[in-house]
Amino acid sequence: FPILVALCVALFYAIALVIACHRGDPRGVTFSRLYNSLFFASYVLYPAIAAKCFMFFPCDEYEFMNGSRRFSRVDHSISCDDDHGGRLAFVVMVTVAYVVGIPLVWARALWPHRKRLAAAGVDDSTRHLSFLVSAYRPRAWWYELYAAVFRLLSTAVLVACSSDTIATALAAILFEIMALVIDTLVRPFASVVDNA
Q1: Which of 54, 69, 112, 194 is 20 to 30 A from 131, alpha carbon to alpha carbon?
Q2: CA distance 183 to 33
């Protein structure tokens, strides 16, 4: 599925360029709308695919007459005592490529425009990035990247602690306290109500 998503993204990008160039507007309104749609799609799919990737790693242990065996929590036909049927390398590759890759793509798109975004927010030259930054104050142009990495780390820790319910609850509480403190100190949102 993640490889299919990556191919769709590449195809979507190519179509956006062709349509924009055909209209004589290679970096204008058409491109910005399609680029913004691409960011939106990656934003919507990111949490579900990240959680699914991380869920592959925890194992459940079962007792049998000839000893105990561990199986993947997501698919009990996959034994954790062997190499996951060769699937482990694929899952690690997809996890790194997609779960880490999407925030890197966002960072790569935002970084060249950081000074302009911090000074004036979204303008004509940064319109294609509006989905990632429009909810935040100009000085907090980076906040969506922070939020994605924060969600990534909290999901990874919660999945790693999932066999111990007390550790999972404590980790969730600590992550929420950290998020609350950072949000209170930074006050990143453009809306005063959201910063309250």
Answers
A1: 54
A2: 29
Tokens 């309250």 belong to residue: 196
The mean pLDDT value of the chain amounts to: 78
Give the integer Cα–Cα distance in Å for 160 and 180: 22
Q: What does the DSSP 8-state code read for residue 164? A: -
Main-chain dihedrals φ then ψ at residue 150, nearest 5 degrees: -60, -45
SS3 136: strand
Angle CA 146–149–151, to nearest 5: 105
* Dist. CA 16–CA 173, nearest whole Å: 42
Using CB atoms within 10 A of its CB, is residue 133 exposed (0-12), middle (13-18) or buried (19+)? Answer: buried
Say how far apart CA 33 and CA 176 lie, in whole Å.
Answer: 34
Phi then psi dihedrals of residue 71, to 5 deg: -130, 150
> Which tokens is 27 given?
């970096």
User: What secondary structure does DSSP assign to 27-82, as a single string?
Assistant: TSHHHHHHHHHHHHHHHHHHHHHHHHHHHTS-EEEEEETTEEEEEESS-TTSBTTT
Name the pTM for this structure.
0.68
Q: How far apart are CA 137 and CA 117, in angstroms?
A: 9
Examine the pLDDT at 1 and tell me if it is beyond 60. no
State the helix-helix crossing angle for 143-160 and 29-55, rounded to 10 degrees.
20
Residue 161, pLDDT above cutoff 70? no
